[in-house]
Amino acid sequence: MPDPSPVFGRETSSRPSRASLRTAVVWDVLKDALDRRVKATGKDSLDVLDTGGGSGNFAVPVARLGHRVTVVDPSPNALFALERRAAEAGVADRVTGVQGDVHGLFDVVEREAYDAVLCHGVLEYVDDPAEGVRNAVAALRTGGSLSLLAAGLGGAVLARALAGHFTEARHALTDPDGRWGAGDPVPRRFTAEQLAELTAEAGLRIGAVHGVRVFADLVPGVLVDTEPGAAEALLKLEAAAAELPSFHAIATQLHVLGEKRA
């Protein structure tokens, strides 16, 4: 079966794409979790749920691994793009798009029906993040994994400060939702501790916490695109820093992988 990495831009050229710099850490952790689940269950094909999966940035690569993926998203346009992308990748028979959201998840999917659930870029926008996590966990089979990705507070503070918006940086630092002002397009941000608490309260055993886009959003694009070897070196730096708790506080996004307990 073909390697799904071209979807992330890793093999479309000799240099990693900007997209792959932002997704590589999450993809590597997720793929490893899926591989472990395959070995644990003895199944060649897993059932995967992608809540808020949009146009299939993760769903299509997961399907290219041979797994069955259901994408739940509130946007009809995103689901249309998903259908087209899945067809172009040759995995249309393994990808199903359903209109809905994480709060009404069991109006459109079954409980305890999935080996893995992806909840990426969802908690920032829902009214009740704790309920969103509980629903995601309730969709998992025992022993299944939840991949949770959300906006990080520290990364936003650092980005505003480096852009010279010091008042906004301080506002984000003290705001209960981590917002830098009324014009902030992200309704809510989290610390690593907050995400770990949400997942633990929902009954998950936390396997790993990673900082995502620690440096990728701060490095000038012209440097990455023109300096020989810069993109590859940055990719390795992101991977090395992702596992270190000291860098979680400045990551643009935070990734938590948890396993559903018996």
Automatic annotation (TrEMBL):
MF-aspect GO terms: methyltransferase activity
Domain Methyltransferase type: 49-146
GO biological process: methylation
The organism of origin for this protein: Streptomyces narbonensis
Keywords (A to Z) from UniProt: Methyltransferase, S-adenosyl-L-methionine, Transferase
Source species, domain of life: Bacteria
Keyword Methyltransferase: yes
Protein's name in the database: Methyltransferase
